[in-house]
Amino acid sequence: MDHGVKEENFLAEMAKWFVQTIKRPTKAATTNKYFGLASLLINVLLVSTAVHMMINRTFSVLHMINSDVPTGTSLFVRIFIAIIVFFGIQIAAGFGMYRQIIKDSTNIYKFMNRIATFSNLMIIVGLVFNLFVMIGGISSMQNGGYRLAIYILVGLLSIIWVTSYSMVFSFANIKDKFDRIQTVLVTVVANHAVLALTGYICFKVIQGMAK
C-alpha cells in the first residue's frame, strides 16, 4: 500500500512540477531528484513512437523487398535504443561541460532536472506529433508533406533542446574566468557539435536498418 501511495505522490508531484516548468520554468521548484530522469525517459518514448510511426510505412515497403529490414516492434526497439543513446550522449557531454565550466558540485540527477525544467516543452511537441500521426495525418500526406513533417519534428525538438542547454548554463552560478555570455556561446557551439555527431550516428544506425 505504501509503495502505491509513494508512486501516486510521485506522479502527482511530477505533474505539478511539469505544469510549473511549462508556465514559468525559471521559477519551477524541483522536489524530487528523479523528475528530470523521468521526463527525459518520457521524451525518449514519445520521440521513438513518433519516429516509428512516421517511418514504419517506408520500412514495411522495404521489408517486402528485403525480409531483413525490421518493421513493427523490432523497428521500434531499435529506434528506442538509438534515441536512448542519443539522449545519453547529450546528457553525458552536457554534464561534463557543466562540471568543467561551472565547477560546482552538481550531480547528474540535478543536471537532468535542470535540463528537463527547460526542455519539458518537448513532451508537448511529442504528444502533438504522436496524436497527429495516430489520426492519420502522416498516412494521408504525399511524399513531400511526409518529409516536411519529419523535418518539422526534428527541427522543433532540436531548437527546444539547444535552447534548454543554453538556459541551464546561463542560469548557473558562474565562478570561473568565463562570463555568462562566453559560457552560453561555448555551450551552444559545443552542443551543436555533439548534437550533429550524435544525430549523424543515430541517422546512420536507422539508415542501416533499411539496407
Polypeptide structure, described:
By secondary structure, the chain is mainly alpha-helical. It has 7 helices and no strands. Helix 6 packs antiparallel against helix 7 (180-209). It is globular and about 55 Å long. The relative contact order is 0.14. The mean pLDDT is 75.
Q: What proportion of the residues form beta strands (DSSP E)?
A: under 5%
How many E strands?
Answer: 0
Biggest sheet details: none
Helicity level: over 70%
Order of helices and strands: HHHHHHH
List descriptors.
211 residues; mainly alpha
What's the gist of this structure?
The chain is mainly α and 211 residues long. It has helices spanning 2-23, 35-65, 72-101, 108-119, 121-134, 143-170, 180-209.
List the helices and strands and how they pair.
Elements: H1 2-23, H2 35-65, H3 72-101, H4 108-119, H5 121-134, H6 143-170, H7 180-209
